[in-house]
Design goal:
Blueprint (H helix, E strand, L loop, with lengths): L47 E5 L4 H12 L6 E6 L7 E4 L2 E4 L1 E2 L10 E4 L3 H13 L3 E4 L33 E4 L3 H17 L1 E10 L6 H15 L18 E2 L11 H13 L6 E8 L6 E9 L5 H9 L4 E3 L11 H4 L5 E8 L8 E8 L3 H14 L2
Parallel strand pairs: 1-2, 1-6, 2-5, 6-7, 7-8, 9-11, 13-14
Antiparallel strand pairs: 3-4, 9-12, 10-11, 12-15, 14-15
Helix pairs in contact: 1-8, 3-8
Length: about 375
């Protein structure tokens, strides 16, 4: 049986949602070689925008989010490697030619959204900044640089203070890691109320986090295993279908892998709190798109579960799915292609005395809020 070709933005059909659920949906339109049937975002007084890595999964999601949110741009420049240059993309009823990324790509650009890998960001990010461009970078290249803000708009918008569009002064802004964004969208509203002193996170991360090729391999392996064949293992060193394993990031000398340490270090920077204790275990699970995380929180002051549920119900970008009677809680499928992060299993930690601990379960779309949406929201703050 021949495997059907997957697009870079492979979509899953969202199942029936519980009546109490109100996840904000993205439009179903995506960049393609055919007409892009969405409203125009072209505005003469908007900024000129460049997308670096436009042919990748997150690059395509940038285009989708810009259209979904009607982000106003004066002009749009699509940039990629030499291999992808000269391709024609039809987007919002206009034809664009993908241009090769060079040192001259950022003339007359106001905002550049980068998602092309750390080495590309390290080389071309400073070049763009020197030309007065505000760069929002999705790689890990600049996240831990003390001089560069690491931003989740709902969490720490104050980190961008002083960065102005069309001021003649360029700037770099880092997009956090996807697992950090999804976790802190839920943990931060509770942290503001009762101050988190320790956080234990276990992640269940989808194939989308490893890119389109990993998504394709997961589907291929699933077919192969069901047909009694040996699974193709090119992206990962072991079978992914019907299996789970430690995240494929390199393991460091302390026994943690790089993905886990990103959660530790980025949380401390975003919360501006070097004393908060964070530990993480990151697992790759055979889910196509959207990450799930189990989060245990220990607080400085008491916080009961009813108050926590109320806080989360009113938090921006968060939706609560917490129906104990029906055993209905967040799942990756529910949040796939959605903007909101879903939170459920909100319960008191019985291992701690009093109301000093909570357990929550969080799900969020890794490509959307975990990457492209967060970056576009940062760009919106500049308008």
């Amino acid at each position: 049986m021949k495997l059907p070709t997957l697009s870079l933005n492979h979509r899953l059909t969202t199942p029936f949602l519980h009546p109490a659920t109100n996840l904000s949906a993205s439009r179903s339109s995506r960049v393609s070689n055919g007409p892009f049937t969405v409203r125009m975002s072209l505005k003469e007084d908007g900024p000129s925008v460049a997308i670096v890595g436009v042919t990748g999964a997150v690059g395509q999601e940038f285009l989708s989010v810009i259209s979904d949110r009607d982000f106003p741009y004066r002009s749009l420049k699509l940039l990629a490697s030499k291999r992808s240059a000269e391709k024609t993309v039809t987007y919002e009823n206009r034809n664009y030619t993908v241009e090769e990324l060079t040192e001259n790509s950022f003339d007359d650009v106001d905002i550049a959204l980068f998602s092309a890998g750390g080495s590309i960001s390290k080389k071309f990010g400073p070049i763009a900044v020197d030309k007065g461009v505000i760069v929002v970078d999705n790689s890990s290249a600049f996240r831990m640089d003390e001089a560069i803000p690491l931003v989740i708009p709902e969490v720490n918008p104050e980190a961008m203070e002083g960065i102005k569009l069309k001021s003649g002064k360029g700037a770099l802004i880092a997009n956090p890691n996807c697992s950090t964004i999804i976790c802190l969208m839920a943990a931060t509203p509770l942290h503001r109320r009762a101050k988190v002193i320790r956080m234990v996170v276990s992640t269940y991360q989808a194939a989308s986090g490893a890119g389109a090729a990993a998504m394709e391999e997961l589907e291929l392996q699933t077919r192969e295993v069901l047909e009694g064949k040996e699974p193709t293992c090119k992206i990962f060193k072991q079978q992914y279908a019907f299996n789970l394993f430690s995240h494929n990031a390199p393991v460091l000398s302390n026994g943690y892998n790089e993905e886990e340490m990103k959660l530790v270090k980025e949380t401390r920077k975003i919360w501006n709190n070097k004393d908060v204790k964070v530990t993480a275990t990151c697992i790759r699970v055979p889910v196509m798109r959207a990450h799930a995380e189990s989060v245990n929180l220990q607080f400085e002051t008491p916080l009961d579960e009813d108050t926590a549920r109320d806080i989360l119900s009113n938090a921006p970008g968060v939706v609560v799915i917490d129906d104990r009677a029906a055993n209905f809680f967040p799942t990756p499928l529910q949040v796939s292609n959605k903007d909101d992060v879903a939170v459920g299993r909100i319960r008191q930690d019985v291992s701690q005395d009093g109301s000093y601990g909570l357990d929550i379960f969080v799900c969020g779309d890794q490509i959307r809020k975990g990457a492209a949406l967060n970056a576009v929201q940062i760009a919106e703050m500049l308008l």
